[in-house]
Amino acid sequence: MSANTSIHDFLAQHSKKEAVSFHMPGHKGSLLYKRFGFDDFLGNIMNYDITEIPGADNLFQTEGAIKSVQDRYAALYGCKKSYLLVNGSSGGNIAAILASVGQGKQLIMARNCHKSVFNALTLGGIKPVYVYPETIGEYGISGAIEPAAVEKLIAENPDAEAVFITSPNYYGICSDIKSIAQIAHHSGKILIVDEAHGAHLQFSKALPASALESGADLVINSTHKTLASLTQSAVLHCNSEIVDHYLLEDKLQCVQSTSPSYILMASLDINAKILERHRNVLMEEWVHNLDLFYRRISKIPGLKTMGQMEGLDWTKINFSLGALGISGAQLDHILMEEYNIFIELFTGDWVMAMSGIGNKSEDYDRLASALEAIAGKDHLYESNSSPNDSHASSIDYDSANERNDKKKGSGVRLTPPKQALMFDIPTQKKRVKLADSEGMICASSIIPYPPGIPLICPGERIEAEAIAYIQTMRELGEKVIGVNELGEVIVGSNPTE
User: Fold this and answer.
1) Does 385 fall in a domain?
2) Which keywords has UniProt assigned to this entry (predicted)?
3) What range does the domain containing 485 cover?
4) pLDDT of 387-401, one tens digit each?
5) Is residue 49 part of a domain?
6) 313-353, pLDDT tens digit by residue?
7) In this structure, what CATH number is given to the domain that contains residue 447?
8) Residue 98 maps to which CATH number?
9) 17 part of a folded domain
10) In this prediction, what percent of the chain has a pLDDT beyond 90?
């Protein structure tokens, strides 16, 4: 997109392409709303944009319309209470942590959590105790969090007040939340699960069990990622008596706008109505289309998938044509430029196409046909021909210790953060060039985006491999939060910091 193109102009141009979306959001456009009779919403966006007029209720003191929607979500998900979120799962993550962990206390958390979790640590002065996901060597991505690892950390840190896990991760790999919940509750800990990518799991037995079904106390769902609400809308579920509801509600009003969008909340209402009335049909269609798709692409010579491995949410379609010499970056570019198919991300030789409740059977057919055509070409793609202008959703940052050089499509492994010393977060800070920062202590998170999982956290030493990776990303035009336009990062001023 040109720097002179406005947001509106870009969206208008993109909407005319009739592109196939295998990226979030899950509604995949207007057809789902039209199918179930919500044309009025689509045609009245401006008229629906109101404030807290009489009868419209108030998000932070619900008594009427908003309370009704929240109660319906609680019924849909089988929990004690649900809260609408207009600041995405990010706001829900922060509120859940601040309501569960006291100032200066410990939180046992997965190192591959979203940036919002690290922001909560800063806001609450909370001390992290990291549990690290296993790396699936065959695919070079983060796997599940092992219950035994959580149990060990609880034993070593008995004063920790809560456990925070992301499940499923960006690739759809789910942890054993049932076992982790039992371990956490045995020690009196609150279990919080960032289930942003799994709002749909509750509604199909063909998929891994949801975090609520598995016993988590607080669960955050990005209904916009895979279901039918608009981007930035989400829901926080509470299913526990050990969580202080009043404190949770106080933290929610601290981290959300005092001018919540009624358009977003209306989309959450519509999403609930669609699920209440049509979830069985929609989930059956979704699973059926996926099953046919996987069967079809399994016949493509040279194509690999992660298939239906245990604990995998297979609505995340992970596939590779690496055996044919095509890297994930190249495949992403080919699908976008030649077939008008937009996917969520790639890493190394792998691509992840993110399906949603709004994908039609024709979408899967177009993707399968494109892969058949690409694999059937009689030439291999050059390993150095990856485009420099790949779109923003095209790198995996889920695994903190696995990084990839996109130009070559081959793995570049960084030192896992757990092998580096954790220092106090510097109090005296300065800016230095990224290239000159090796060995210094980071004072501000450095975050490849999306999906926003910190590569380097405050208090971690900046290593040479991380610098090289960040420089490569910036050269390719990818976004790295924490590195300014001059290529500077914030570090401790003193040699000891």
Assistant:
1) no
2) Aminotransferase, Transferase
3) 429-492
4) 433 333 333 334 333
5) yes
6) 999 999 999 999 999 989 999 999 999 999 998 888 999 99
7) 3.90.105.10
8) 3.40.640.10
9) no
10) 78
Quick: pLDDT tens for 277-327: 999 999 999 999 999 999 999 999 999 999 778 899 999 999 999 999 999
Q: Is the pTM of this model over 0.85?
A: yes
Look at residues 276, 308, 325 and tell me which one is the last residue of a structural domain: 276
Q: What percent of the chain has pLDDT over 70?
A: 88
Can you give the three-state secondary structure of the chain, one letter per residue? CCCCCCHHHHHHHHHCCCCEEECCCCCCCCHHHHHCCCHHHHHCHHHHCCCCCCCCCCCCCCCCHHHHHHHHHHHHHCCCEEEEECCHHHHHHHHHHHHHCCCCCEEEEECCCCHHHHHHHHHHCCEEEEECCCEECCCCEECCCCHHHHHHHHHHCCCCCEEEEECCCCCCECCCHHHHHHHHHHCCCEEEEECHHHCCHHHCCCCCCCCCCCCCCEEEECHHHHCCCCCCCEEEEECCCCCCHHHHHHHHHHHCCCCCCHHHHHHHHHHHHHHHHHHHHHHHHHHHHHHHHHHHHCCCCCCEECCCCCCECCCEEEEECHHHCCCHHHHHHHHHHHHCEEECEEECCEEEEECCCCCCHHHHHHHHHHHHHHHHCCCCCCCCCCCCCCCCCCCCCCCCCCEEECCCCEEECCCCHHHCCECCCCCCEEEEEHHHCCCCEECCCEEEECCCCCCECCCEECCHHHHHHHHHHHHCCCEEECCCCCCEEEEECCCCC
Residue 2 placed within a domain: no
Tell me the two tokens of residue 235. 């829901």
Q: Distance between CA atoms of 69 and 92, rounded to whole angstroms?
A: 17
> 190-247, pLDDT tens digit by residue?
999 999 999 999 999 999 999 999 999 999 999 999 999 999 999 999 999 999 999 9
Question: How many domains in the chain?
Answer: 2
